[in-house]
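Action item from last meeting closed. Structure (312 res):
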């Protein structure tokens, strides 16, 4: 009997290890305002090392429950976010707001829905449309490939409730004002202002210390989104990636966007092609060369800016 008992114990330990290995390791929730917490993800792209988690999920505790913003890139990320929420409050999640269509921000919807099926999941109407039109499937493939299968099994639980420019979602005595800048980071973006908290959730319209793709948006629209955020009375700004901070982080990201776009405009007006202007443009944004992803995205940003100018 002993060999069978040892084998059974081995199988139990193996199953326990497999279950724990499937869980995304915890990342602490940091309180940034009286009722607001942010979980700051690593700065890099989705990978095996970061288990596909690299955005900034956040949550606001209201009198009635919890409002979650961007619960992460996978079912596993969503479960990790729920674990952090439960360390703060036992209240249920009542609402989820997704800032844009890029899947690293919203695939955690699945875990939230599984735990709280009555939670209202909200996003820009163009985000909902684009997700149904193929963006969800494309992003599931991206996450699976970059994490070598870690996020596999995640379902794209697409938001069902559209929120639009200037709309206010009120729950538990707290108002969440929607800003929907046009043609900004992705063309499907919302930013969420919580005036009572002095907090502005920026989505990927602002990143801090990191760059990502601009293929789905425009420089001019993204600069306008930064200006809109700076015009609010908020004092705490939560970027889509990178550490939360004050207005300086918005100004810094705007500085990169405007510096690159205006330099590209001058070079374009002088008749140069994108590959001929890169050295000049790089010199204009030299303070940003140490940001995560600069070497990957800089050349692509120049090309996107040229295409934007050609379309004007």
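Sequence:
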């Amino acid at each position: 009997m002993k060999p069978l008992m040892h084998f059974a114990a081995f199988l139990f330990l193996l199953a326990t290890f497999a279950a724990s290995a499937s869980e995304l390791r915890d990342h602490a929730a940091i309180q940034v305002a009286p009722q607001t917490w942010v979980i700051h993800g690593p700065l890099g792209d989705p990978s095996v090392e970061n288990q596909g988690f690299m955005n900034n999920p956040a949550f606001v505790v209201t009198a009635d429950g919890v409002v979650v913003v961007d619960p992460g890139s996978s079912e596993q990320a969503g479960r990790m976010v729920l674990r952090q929420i439960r360390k703060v409050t036992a209240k249920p999640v009542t609402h989820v707001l997704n800032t844009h269509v890029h899947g690293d921000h919203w695939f955690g919807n699945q875990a939230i829905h599984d735990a709280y099926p009555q939670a209202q999941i909200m996003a820009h109407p163009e985000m909902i449309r684009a997700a149904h039109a193929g963006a969800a499937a494309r992003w599931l493939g991206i996450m699976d490939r970059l994490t070598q299968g870690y996020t596999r099994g995640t379902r794209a639980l697409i938001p069902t409730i559209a929120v639009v420019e200037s709309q206010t979602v009120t729950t538990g005595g707290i108002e969440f004002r929607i800003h929907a800048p046009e043609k900004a980071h992705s063309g499907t973006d919302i930013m969420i202002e919580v005036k009572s908290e002095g907090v502005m959730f920026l989505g990927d319209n602002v990143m801090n210390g990191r760059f990502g793709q601009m293929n789905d948006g425009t420089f001019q629209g993204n600069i306008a989104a930064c200006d809109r955020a700076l015009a609010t009375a908020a004092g705490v700004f939560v970027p889509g990636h990178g550490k939360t901070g004050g207005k300086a982080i918005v100004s810094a990201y705007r500085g990169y966007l405007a510096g690159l776009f205006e330099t590209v405009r001058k070079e374009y007006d002088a008749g140069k092609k994108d590959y001929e202007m890169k050295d000049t443009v790089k010199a204009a944004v030299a303070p940003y060369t140490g940001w995560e992803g600069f070497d990957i995205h800089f050349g692509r940003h120049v090309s996107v800016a040229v295409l934007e100018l050609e379309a004007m």
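Note appended to the action item: The chain has one domain: 2-310.
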